[in-house]
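Give me a protein, keeping tokens residue-aligned:
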Amino acid sequence: MRTKPQRARGDGPPEHGILVVDKPSGMTSRSVVDVIARALPHAKVGHSGTLDPLASGILIICVGAATRLVEAVQRLSKSYRTVIHLGAKSDTLDADGRIEAVASPPIPSPAEIARVLPSLSGRALQKPPDYSALKIKGKRAYDLARAGLRVELAPRLVQIDLIAVLGYEWPRLELQIDCASGTYIRSIARDAGELLGCGGFVETLVRTRVGPFSLEEAVSLEALSDANSIRRHLRTMIEAVPDLPRVVLSPSQVEAVAFGRRLSIADLARPLETAGEIALSNEDGELVALAQANPHEGWIQPRKVLI
């Protein structure tokens, strides 16, 4: 006999939710996951949206059932604050790589920078760095690059909403960048340097926002020293999908969704006209599942059940 499903959030392990962590520079994203995993040995732990070791700032850690939301978190828009070092180039496009100074580089004026940067904004094709985690025939690009092999990565369509100058004193150009998922800030530094004719690489990088989460509300790793402190800082799974329309279900509908059953839109408490991916919650506001809605045919089909 089937039993009533357990709630996604319980009093004891395993825990479910997300952590908004302030990753320190010099640490890999995987290392941050390992810190949390050691404190929660009975829970699944993963990260969403890798930060390079050089970078600091917001890293979203998904715990328990929330690991099924990694893709949803990854697609959230992001903001960065970066310092681009002009007048030199790097094979990794950042300060961790092999740096080569450009001989007698032209020193761009503020006016030249203001003229060039808008051309990097908007929707455009961007070539990813050779030293990236993208795969080429099953192998990571950075592994091929480190082995001295040729790396050929096709340009990818990205969306860059804002590139604003925060400060400029040669050779350092500080920028704020707002962009969609999949954008490489290192590639922006390279492209800006090429357009200015002087070369450029990322000297520092801070991710200041992921979707609705700001750096001011991020938690340091020091504050996540054990299971109890992690539990105090866990945020609900519904916060991981702020971009999705939300449908509140009755207790009987929650139970049906737990078994993957299709719901009728006609049975909802409120009309639903939105097609595509939606978030289903219970009456307490807890995320139950991600689902696909088809108002034309009148059904909602659970796709990722989280209880």
Remarks:
- The longest strand covers residues 156-169.
- The CA atoms of residues 36 and 175 lie 32 Å apart.
- The chain has three domains: 17-75+212-239, 78-202, 244-305.
